[in-house]
Structures are given as structure tokens and as C-alpha cells.
């Protein structure tokens, strides 16, 4: 009888824990607001925007870019970058500093600095060389949206590897190559949000730049891996301290017409370890959440977020503006 009683108690305890966990998962499903996914998208798009500035500046610096360049000014390849000034005092050592002065441009106010240093510059490495590595150091680099005051600040280091060789100068003006391919990696990059909370991001992406119809276009793929998952563009911990992964299932495409914050195509699956469901993101949709074919010089409305638990599905349509 004691064995039977003990077994019944064990079954009851197991059922209680299962019931409690199930209720917790249902509550999380009902209360999901997609904030961790929005944070990840904000971080990726602002990181892409910063990397675009990096490429724009380096493509116009003859000493850093390499021999044969026709440009050597302090502006970017595409002209002046709004709210940015360039400190070239470290040029002889293969380094320049991008300083942002707080000017508001296109709903974004940027402050802080980004220091660029070509690895092994003293040994002849230049940015146009295939395999060249660039160290990118974010120093209180903060982006604040003028419309709602929300912000993100990057602090830390990431590296960009020039897999294809060449620069934006060759791609856009000399037209000696059809694409540029870069890989981007960072370890525990700090991303601090407007509430003072900080997420830790491990960004691992491959970026392919092209110039169809004279529009600067970027395709981003995930190349990272963690806990048995591949094609990760990012993994780490959210601003609330939960472990997460962001897996690219369809490459993300954006262009300078619409901006890095408004992809015209792509799918990403975000999994937060504490939740029993995935958050699926579909970019380039209309205001009903349907994928749209975007014509040149036009932009999509926004992106769709969906999550499913035990056959029940919820969704949100999030506008880019």
C-alpha cells in the first residue's frame, strides 16, 4: 500500500507541474508582444546602417582602401553622411574615426563614435584586398528615434572580413565587379535600450552588396551557429536576460531607397529559451500582412510577426515608420 500511495503522490505532483507549466506557456502565448523580436530587428537594421557608413567612408579613403583609388576625400563614396564628421588623425596607422554630432536625419538622431582600424595595416593590408579584416569599435554609438524617443546604443567590437575584395568605389563607380561580399562577426556586443536595459548580441552575418537599376541593394544571411542551430544572424541574451536565437530562413534584402530599417524581403525565426513557441518574422508586407512585390524606388509597409502554440496562432503587423 505504501508503494501504491507513493506512486499516486508522484503522479499527482507530476500532473501538477505539467498543469502549471502548461498554464505558464498559455499565459506567455496570450501576453506575447514581440518585444524581443523588435529589439533584434532594430539592432540588426541599425548595425547594417552603421556598416553602410563604414563602407561608404572607406571606399573614399585612398590610403586605407588601397592603390588605384580615384578618391581620397573625407566624404563618403555617395556624398556627405548626415550628422557625421571624420577624424583622420590616425590615418597613418590605418585608422579613422566616425563622429556623430546629434543631427536628426530621417527620424534618427545619432551620437557617439565608431573607430575603424584595418588589421595588419602596417604589413601592407588594405581594405580592397580580398580577405582584409576591419576592426569596428563602437564607442557609445547611440541611435534615437525622433518620433517616439526609443533608442539603442552599441558598445563593443565587431569585425568585418572582405570576402570578395574590392570596395563600394569599384562596385558603384568603376563597375569592375558586380557584387561585394562581407562577413560580420561580434561577440557579446552590448546593445542598451531606452529603459537602460542591455542585451548581449553575437552577430554573425554575410552581407552581399549589389547595384541593380542603380539602387544600392544589400542581402543579409545568417552564418552563425549555437546549440545545434545554424544560419543564425544573432544569438545571445535579450534585454530581460533571456537566451535567444535569431535564425534566417530566407535572406533579408534591403536597399538604400527604403533604408536598412525597411527590408523588402526576408524571413527570420526568433526563439526565446523561456517560451514554448517561435516568433516568425516576414519582412516586406502590406498593411494586411501579405507579402508584396516591391517595384524599384518603392517600399513595403512593414513586417509581420506570428507565433503559434498548440494550434492557436496570433500575429502583429508592424509598420516600418
Describe it.
The chain has 321 residues and is α+β, with helices and mostly antiparallel strands. The chain has one domain (32-319). Helix content is 20%, strand content 43%. It contains four helices and 16 strands. The chain has helices at 2-31, 35-58, 62-65, 168-174, and strands spanning 84-87, 95-105, 108-118, 133-145, 151-162, 180-186, 189-193, 198-210, 217-222, 224-226, 229-237, 243-255, 265-272, 278-285, 302-309, 312-319. A hairpin with a 2-residue loop joins strand 10 and strand 11 (229-237).
Quick recap:
The protein is of the alpha+beta class.
Features of the shown structure:
321 residues, alpha+beta
Give the overall form. Answer: globular
**Low-confidence runs:** 8-22
Mean pLDDT: 88
Biggest sheet character: 16 strands, antiparallel
Computed Rg: 23 Å
* Terminal-residue CA separation: 68 Å
